[in-house]
Structure formats: structure tokens, C-alpha cells
Write a sequence for this structure.
């Protein structure tokens, strides 16, 4: 109980000071809009649905990019994990692409796809594919060799051994990589929106800031914080449900 | 270090070369639009021109400095707050919920707020970098400071070390490996955010160069910029890995 009170004390104090400062006119209203105004702006944005539409645009792009990255990363990772020699040949090329910040590809993606979902999803996919790929390679390589021998003895095709043996055996570790990738996906989607793509929550915040609506901007920032926190909690909850995935 | 067999090494080089040649051929024959994919030779020529004329250094240095300042600020804040939260029960109770809420916030999301306060300035860019890059160091130092070996704690008690002495002499060295690992992640984040803020706030640097090249459809320049950023990411990661090895030489090998 004492912990709860202490933990809540600083945020509550800050908000109270902020509100009081705003009402007394000490804090300039064009940068610090009052907490009560922020709550009002949030209520209005939820009432007319604009914030929900923006949220969906952001989440949609993050999900599409994540799905592409997950599929490509798991598939390529499984192949490279099973063929160490191939991995050594492709490895250096992969390693030289990996340090490129995905954000640096934004202008290129814009040139290729124009504004919209594809632009955002492609940058998200590039950013998310590396953790999935690397974790999958490591996970597949860590599979008990006798299981793979079994697949060979039963003359399974690559597709069925992937489905029946490789994925189930490596899944727990792959999930760890996927979790990392989900977090990256949301961050990259927001970043792309803030810098160039005119859709979603990130763009909403930039526009609110530029049109001197700090209340609306803080409302969206707060909402985004809640989303991120919810995602984080959900992911660590899912990890606990999945035995072995928290490692 | 394991030695790579010659055949595999040659295979790796060959693979990269085949990709490049394929790209060159496709672009030359205009199977893929040279607007999006300029041939590798044009990109390299552009890169060479920039190096020869010396125009590449100014943006490179600007981005590197911005990244470094943001990272240094983040590391300092992270270690100080982390030390407080990691070694004091009260500080943890007071700060943890606030930090837990702020941590999942995408760093780029505070750019609009930072612009309101600081304008399109270098200070805005550095504070956004610091906000985004602080978390790995912060978490690592919380973990490092709170997991000091109990035996060491007992020794400190027996020697009657003051809290400050305990932090400097025992807790900090024992948390150092964690902190350095966090700092490496932070540096990568710093580079990304440096590029993002340059694009958003028109600060000089590689990020702005890439964006300007795209806006004027100078794609060889765009690619040259991406290549430079990739190189920079690689060099930075390598440098800090080496630095980590050096600073941690005192640890017995095999220690986790």
C-alpha cells in the first residue's frame, strides 16, 4: 500500500502543479496546455472517432509490416539455420545490411511506393525482420539433431518437416524474437508517420503541434503511452503463458 | 576466433558480388527503374565523388556529434537515475511507476512535444535522442546496482563504508558490465534518432542529406547516404564492442 502511494505521489503532484500553474498563468498555454484541457481534447477526439481512426491506421501499418517480417524472417531463418554452409556464404551480406537504420530507408520507400500504407509497412518490415531472422537461425540450429535425422529418415519434404518438426521445436525461442519485433513495429510505424507519412497517430501529433493545439497533441501522446504500455504488458503476460518463451 | 575456410570466404564474397552484378545488369537494361535503383556503379561513383571533393565529412561529423552528445547525456542520466533506483528502496517506490509508463513510449513520439518547447533546434534533437536512448542504460544500471552480490554487501557493512563509498568502490564496478551492454544498445538508438530528428527538424547531417536527395530525385546520392549510414552503424557498434572488451579486462574470462 505504501508503495502504491509513493508511486502515485510524483505523477499526481506533477499533474496538480501543472494544472495550478496553467490556471495561474505561470505556465505558457501554447506549450503546457492544462491537464483538464488535455482530458477534454481526448474526450472530444474519442467522441468524433478521429483518434480511433488514426490509431487503426498506425496499428494496421505496424501489423502488416510485422507480418511480412515474421513470415520472411522465420522462413529464411529456418533455411539458413538448417544449412550452416549457406549461412556462412549469405551471412556477410546480411551482416552488412543489418546496421542500416530502417529509418534511413524511409526516403527510398517514399520514392518507390509514394505515401500510404505500403511505405510505412515496408519500413516496418525492414526494421522487424532482423531480430526474427537472427533468433530463428539460432533457434533452428539449437534443435536436437536427432529430430532432424528423424525427418530425413522419414523422407519428409522440406515443407512438412518445417511444419511438423522444425517450427514446433524452435517455436519457444522464435516467439522471443517475434516479441522484440512487435515492439519495434509500433515504434517504427510512429516514427515514419512523424517524419514523412501523412497518416496515423504520429501524423496527428505533428499536425496538432504545428497548428498550436498542444492539448490535442498531449492527448494523443498520452493515448500512445497507454497503447505502448498495454502492448508491453500483454506481451510479457503472453510470454508467461508460453513456457520457455521468457528466456 | 574461428578461422573461416577459404572456400566459404570466397563463396561469401562471390554471393555479394553476384547480387551487385545482377543489380547492375537489371538497372543497366532498365528492367528496374533507375530512378529507384541506380546502378551500384553510379552509387559508388557518387560516393567516391563526395569523398574526393570532401563534401561527405561535414554531414557525417554533424550526425556523429549529434549522436554522441545525445548518447552521452542519456548514459549520464541513465546511470545516475539507475543508481538511485537500483540502490534505494524509496527512490524505486517513488520513480518506478512513472518510468514504467514512459518507457514504452516511442521516442520519436515526443518529437512534436519537444518541437513545441525547443523549436527546430539542436537542443530539441539532442533531448529527443537522450529520451530515447536513456532506457537501455537505465534498466541495465538498475539491474546492475540492485544485484550486487550479497557477500560484497556484507563486506561493505563490515568495513563500515559510507553509501557514497559503497557506490563508487563496489556497486559501480559490479554494475559496469550491465551498463556497458546497455550503452551499446543506446548508441544504436542514438544513431537512429539522430537521423530521424535531422529529417524532421532540418538539422544538417546525413539524415537531412538523404531526405533532400530523395526530394530532388537524386537517387545515387540517396543510396550513397544510406551506405554511409550503414557503415557508420557498423563502425560504431564495432568500436563500442572493442571498448567494452578493454574496460572489462579485469573480469575473469568465462564469467557471465
Amino acid at each position: 500500500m505504501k508503495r502504491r502511494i509513493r508511486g502515485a505521489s510524483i505523477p499526481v503532484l506533477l499533474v496538480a502543479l501543472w494544472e495550478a500553474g496553467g490556471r495561474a498563468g505561470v505556465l505558457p498555454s501554447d506549450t503546457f496546455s492544462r491537464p483538464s484541457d488535455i482530458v477534454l481534447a481526448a474526450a472530444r477526439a474519442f467522441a468524433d472517432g478521429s483518434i480511433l481512426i488514426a490509431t487503426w491506421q498506425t496499428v494496421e501499418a505496424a501489423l502488416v509490416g510485422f507480418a511480412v517480417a515474421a513470415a520472411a524472417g522465420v522462413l529464411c531463418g529456418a533455411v539458413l539455420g538448417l544449412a550452416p554452409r549457406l549461412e556462412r556464404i549469405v551471412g556477410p551480406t546480411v551482416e552488412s545490411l543489418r546496421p542500416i537504420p530502417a529509418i534511413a530507408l524511409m526516403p527510398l520507400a517514399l520514392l518507390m511506393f509514394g505515401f500510404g500504407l505500403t511505405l510505412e509497412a515496408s519500413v516496418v518490415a525492414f526494421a522487424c525482420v532482423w531480430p526474427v531472422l537472427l533468433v530463428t537461425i539460432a533457434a533452428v540450429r539449437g534443435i536436437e539433431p536427432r529430430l532432424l535425422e528423424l525427418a530425413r529418415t522419414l523422407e519428409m519434404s522440406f515443407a512438412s518437416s518445417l511444419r511438423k518438426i522444425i517450427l514446433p521445436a524452435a517455436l519457444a525461442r522464435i516467439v522471443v524474437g517475434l516479441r522484440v519485433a512487435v515492439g519495434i513495429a509500433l515504434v517504427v510505424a510512429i516514427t515514419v508517420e512523424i517524419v514523412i507519412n501523412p497518416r496515423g497517430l504520429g501524423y496527428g501529433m505533428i499536425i496538432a503541434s504545428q497548428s498550436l493545439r498542444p492539448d490535442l497533441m498531449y492527448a494523443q501522446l498520452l493515448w500512445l503511452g497507454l497503447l505502448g504500455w498495454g502492448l508491453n504488458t500483454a506481451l510479457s503476460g503472453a510470454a508467461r503463458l508460453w513456457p520457455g518463451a521468457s528466456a | 576466433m574461428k578461422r573461416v575456410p577459404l572456400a566459404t570466404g570466397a563463396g561469401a564474397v562471390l554471393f555479394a558480388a553476384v547480387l551487385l552484378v545482377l543489380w547492375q545488369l537489371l538497372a543497366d537494361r532498365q528492367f528496374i527503374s533507375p530512378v529507384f535503383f541506380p546502378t551500384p556503379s553510379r552509387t559508388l561513383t557518387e560516393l567516391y565523388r563526395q569523398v574526393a571533393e570532401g563534401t561527405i565529412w561535414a554531414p557525417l561529423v554533424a550526425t556523429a556529434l549529434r549522436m554522441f552528445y545525445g548518447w552521452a547525456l542519456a548514459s549520464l542520466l541513465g546511470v545516475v537515475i539507475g543508481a538511485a533506483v537500483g540502490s534505494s528502496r524509496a527512490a524505486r517506490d517513488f520513480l518506478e511507476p512513472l518510468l514504467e509508463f514512459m518507457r514504452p513510449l516511442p521516442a520519436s513520439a515526443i518529437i512534436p512535444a519537444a518541437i513545441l518547447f525547443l523549436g527546430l533546434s539542436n537542443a530539441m534533437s539532442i533531448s529527443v535522442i537522450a529520451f530515447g536512448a536513456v532506457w537501455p542504460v537505465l534498466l541495465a544500471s538498475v539491474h546492475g546496482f540492485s544485484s550486487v552480490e550479497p557477500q560484497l554487501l556484507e563486506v561493505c557493512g563490515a568495513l563500515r563504508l559510507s553509501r557514497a563509498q559503497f557506490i563508487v568502490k563496489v556497486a559501480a564496478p559490479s554494475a559496469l558490465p550491465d551498463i556497458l551492454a546497455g550503452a551499446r544498445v543506446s548508441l544504436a538508438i542514438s544513431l537512429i534518432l539522430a537521423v530521424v530528428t535531422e529529417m524532421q527538424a532540418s538539422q544538417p547531417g546525413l539524415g537531412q542529406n538523404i531526405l533532400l536527395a530523395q526530394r530532388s530525385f537524386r537517387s545515387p546520392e540517396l543510396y550513397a547516404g544510406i551506405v554511409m549510414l550503414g557503415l557508420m552503424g557498423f563502425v560504431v557498434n564495432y568500436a563500442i564492442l572493442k571498448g567494452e572488451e578493454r574496460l572489462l579486462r579485469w573480469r575473469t574470462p568465462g564469467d557471465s
